[in-house]
## 1
Amino acid sequence: MAEELLIGENLSKEEKYKALLPQLKGLVSYETDLIANLANLTAALKTTFNFFWVGFYLVKEDELVLGPFQGPIACTRIAKGRGVCGTSWQQAKTIVVPNVDEFPGHIACSSASKSEIVLPIFNHAKEVVMILDVDSELLSTFDEIDEKYLSEVIILIETLL
């Protein structure tokens, strides 16, 4: 198992994703525990991109419950349809928010968060079972590059379910 990521510091965002993805596949290929894998994935994403917050919310009954994450303390429970994460879960789609203050009903777990990308993760029955939430302390951080490569991370996670 790789215990160190090898990502060049002077790479573009897309080059970093391209270098990171095969390492993530290797990282999770030796571990069968989902929570351990989610924990390492959050650490890898936070370390590589220096995001403000990276984490998972797990669907438990009628709400999202905080799972493995990296960053400041976070909201522990989110109702379906509330905030960006709850909306992504309800709509079963990725949401990119350039400015969280302009998102109706945004839940401010931290006032330092300024932009966000949230991606749903599906089980084999095509039900949303968890959410990947990534926050930045800068406005308009996330774009089509993040959506494309974080979607590949989601596909990797879905193979673990």
## 2
Amino acid sequence: MAVRRTRQRGEILELLDGLDEFRSAQQLHELLRERGSSVGLATVYRAVQDLADGGEVDVLRSGDGEAVYRRCGQQAHHHHLVCRTCGRTVELDAGRAETWAQEVAAAYGFGDVDHTIELVGTCQDCRAAAQAEQ
């Protein structure tokens, strides 16, 4: 599904292109306002949902259930490794996870299986910072 190009969506995509971590619609709105944008919060919510539906941005749920968005470099199916402290995100190739998902599905008699795998941990920098505070 192609997403209609608007000035607001262009501003949001440009912002997302410069971010490495997932951000909520509210955080994106705040960053846009800091840049001097007049895009409204409701417009940001609609735009990121449309962009996610169109496959232009990835969406996942944060620890508290909030939808967060990121524009990934890979357009093909992939997964993420996300730091629970700073939000740093690494895109992971799907290869072995795809094989595992198909094997599990087949073992239980399922077909036409879709899945999302997100690994959450603490990155090396955040672990080092936490150790330095102790």
## 3
Amino acid sequence: MKIVCKNKKAFHDYHIDKTMEVGIVLKGPEVKSLRGGRANIKDGYAQLKDGELFLYNVHISPYAFAVHSVADPLRVRKLLLHKRELRKLIGKLHEKGVALIPLKIYFINNGKAKIELGLARGKKQYDKRHALKEKQSKRDLQRTLRDRD
């Protein structure tokens, strides 16, 4: 599994309840660009439209050597998942404060690009501060244990 890009900011801004792996419909030059690691999913989100799931605001840079078609880097891309998975997701997405956030893009062994989506709830400011304090205290503890040895 080759990871193309990760959304580290999502874990800071959201509580991730559940994750799922979905496929993505890409054009040829976009695949080549992804293989080069030229993607940004920081502002991306997935949304239902007409019973299908689409990915918005994910920037995949145009491939430099593409000659026949230059795609819009921010175009809306269709996500692929089974109907029963989609039905489960529809019920959860209609709750207030729930969003689908892309967590990472990667290639699996057979060469297909996949996206890991997270069912996310927004964190409050005090939750973010509390998480940072916990992270800092763990770092300090590890540092003191390492220095003691």
